[in-house]
Amino acid sequence: MLKIFGAPSRYIQGSGALETLGQYAALFGRRAALVIDSYVHGVLGPRIEAVCAGHGVTLVPLIVEGDLTPEVIDGLRAQAAPAGIDMVIAVGGGKSLDAGKAVAKSSHCHLITVPTVASNDAPTSKNYVLYDAHHNLLAVEHMLFNPTIVLVDTAIIATAPVHFFRAGLGDAISKKFEAEQCQRNGGKNMYDAAPLLTAQLIADGCLRTLMADGADAVAVAGTGQPTPAFERVVEAMILMSGLGFESGGLSIAHALTRGLPKINGIATALHGLQVAVGLLVQLDLENRGDGMLADLQQWYAQVGLPTTLRELGAPGQPTDAELTLAADLSLKARNAANFDRTLDVSTLAEALRRHA
């Protein structure tokens, strides 16, 4: 099997980075689709329009609301098709960035992602997730290539509520362990290929950075005042985590996000918070003897991540039927096969019960 590593063409991070958006957009043309939700458009729209206009780039706003369903994507594509766009600029959280990816794919043009929260590593990834009308995950789609430019303004990221930042920590902390399982067991990464050593080393660096600086970064999240520790952790959560999962592969922690929402009270929990609990379940199943599970639980307490299904939102002890359904759906995810041994439903359900 061939090995493949993929990544954005350019990653730019720092306080005030948004001011460079116009100069980068101008590299690709003079007309851009701005994919953004109504709230972020109200807050940042005039500023984005001004920095782009300063470099001769005009914007065609495409407003995203609600879940990203095939119907929503069709509507956005229909708006973009006659607009004569040269590029897509996607601004906001995961849904807006995913919508931007879908529009860029159909328009065969460059994509610039501008995250306003650090709740996951979607800004660097070519993947985007579609849901059905009932909020169920429908499919994971892919652009042909990663975003051309990822622009991360940490002054904006630092204004987002700490709840989103914690979710980003939960999403990122798993990547070292999932990439490790994928590589060790002959799994495929998001490029449908074997992972290179590079991806594992990046995922290892992601873990070290989060463990060292995560608590200090959480302390300033929401203040609008990024510190050096905050900068390092944002880089780990968006860039290192993104490269680590996409080129390194995933395992049980992310597979569990297919099943956990079927447990009462958990469906509304942010993706990264579900992954955080999923990682503890994965490490439990690994039967590790290196003390890492205890170290992570201590770190979770420091940064405020959930360690149980109850802390994730379950109102009480999940029923056997809920745990069985969650385990069954999780094991149907492709990533569940990237593990040291083949798991059955009862084994995974029992592991979930231990973390109730």
TrEMBL record:
<feature type="domain" description="Alcohol dehydrogenase iron-type/glycerol dehydrogenase GldA">
    <location>
        <begin position="8"/>
        <end position="154"/>
    </location>
</feature>
<comment type="pathway">
    <text>Polyol metabolism; glycerol fermentation; glycerone phosphate from glycerol (oxidative route): step 1/2.</text>
</comment>
<protein>
    <recommendedName>
        <fullName>Glycerol dehydrogenase</fullName>
        <ecNumber>1.1.1.6</ecNumber>
    </recommendedName>
</protein>
<keyword id="KW-0520">NAD</keyword>
<keyword id="KW-0560">Oxidoreductase</keyword>
<dbReference type="InterPro" id="IPR001670">
    <property type="entry name" value="ADH_Fe/GldA"/>
</dbReference>
<dbReference type="InterPro" id="IPR016205">
    <property type="entry name" value="Glycerol_DH"/>
</dbReference>
<dbReference type="Pfam" id="PF00465">
    <property type="entry name" value="Fe-ADH"/>
</dbReference>
<keyword id="KW-0479">Metal-binding</keyword>
<dbReference type="GO" id="GO:0008888">
    <property type="term" value="F:glycerol dehydrogenase (NAD+) activity"/>
</dbReference>
